[in-house]
Design the sequence.
């Protein structure tokens, strides 16, 4: 969320934490965040039960493949052979635009950031996610990719709105939902779960001051949902209250 847990983030749980409570999969202390605005990070993480024990990684563009490769090397250096338990793809842009103002440039920029970025970041960090699955007992919900989507990416839900928020954003979130499903199919036998989460209408730069919930509430609820994920949720589109959303 705005200057908060809005960025592409990854977190690692220590084996020690898991041995205390196998059901609370992501309650452990080792985290790192990959984000463009490091000064905002400390307050961001205070909203989350995932406390930052690893230094944050400055990371400029989710769409720049060289930047992604450098970031993945740094994450590997931090988590080592134990791998990565959780990847949250959250960075996104929202460009409103009417049918008369929509442009190829705007569509491409949004698609690159909201869809291609999460795909390439997932690809770059996949070896570390695979490594982490080796630490989890069979059948336990150990490792996950969480794509922060939005209710505007739901074809059924958007029909209930008077305002679609333009073209590029809802189309990109629908594509991100499809990316979630493609990853689920590809990774189904690997022990890595993939879900799409709607964070609610949140008071961030994107959500605006009139949005219904605070960043603190959204992040707390998202963390609760993430902590409760199981294999039954693989490929699901859930909201911050754990309600199943229609595609
Ligand atoms: N707020 C809501 O009501 C709401 C509702 C539904 C879904 N969501 C989703 O929740 C997630 C977080 O949204 P938010 O409300 O926190 O939005 P936000 O306030 O606009 O923040 C978006 C974040 O993404 C980063 N970002 C954008 N383009 C990037 C790029 N190319 N490379 C790296 N970082 C980039 C931004 O960095 P800079 O600040 O440096 O540009 C910013 O940190 C998004 O996926 C959004 O679609 C939000």
Sequence:
């Amino acid at each position: 969320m705005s200057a908060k847990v809005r960025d592409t983030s990854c977190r690692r749980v220590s084996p020690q934490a898991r041995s205390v409570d196998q059901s609370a999969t992501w309650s452990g202390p080792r985290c790192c965040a990959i984000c463009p605005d490091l000064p905002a990070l400390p307050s961001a993480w205070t909203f989350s039960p995932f406390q930052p024990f690893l230094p944050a990684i400055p990371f400029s563009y989710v769409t720049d493949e060289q930047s992604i490769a450098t970031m993945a090397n740094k994450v590997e250096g931090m988590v080592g052979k134990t791998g990565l338990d959780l990847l949250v793809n959250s960075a996104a842009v929202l460009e409103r635009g009417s049918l008369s103002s929509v442009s190829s440039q705007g569509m491409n920029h949004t698609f690159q950031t909201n869809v291609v970025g999460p795909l390439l970041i997932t690809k770059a960090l996949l070896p570390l996610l695979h490594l982490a699955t080796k630490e989890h007992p069979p059948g336990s919900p150990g490792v996950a990719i969480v794509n922060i989507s939005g209710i505007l990416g739901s074809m059924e839900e958007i029909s209930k709105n008077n305002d679609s928020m333009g073209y590029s954003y809802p189309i990109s979130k629908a594509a991100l939902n499809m990316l979630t499903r493609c990853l689920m199919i590809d990774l189904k036998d690997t022990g890595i779960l993939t879900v799409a989460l709607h964070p609610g209408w949140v008071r961030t730069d994107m959500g605006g001051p009139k949005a219904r919930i605070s960043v603190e509430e959204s992040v707390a609820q998202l963390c609760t949902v993430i902590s409760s994920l199981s294999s039954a949720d693989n490929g699901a589109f859930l909201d911050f209250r754990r309600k199943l959303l229609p595609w």
Residues 1-8, 10-30, 38-45 have pLDDT under 50 and may be disordered. The domain at 9-239 is CATH 3.40.50.720 (Rossmann fold). The CA atoms of residues 31 and 174 lie 29 Å apart.
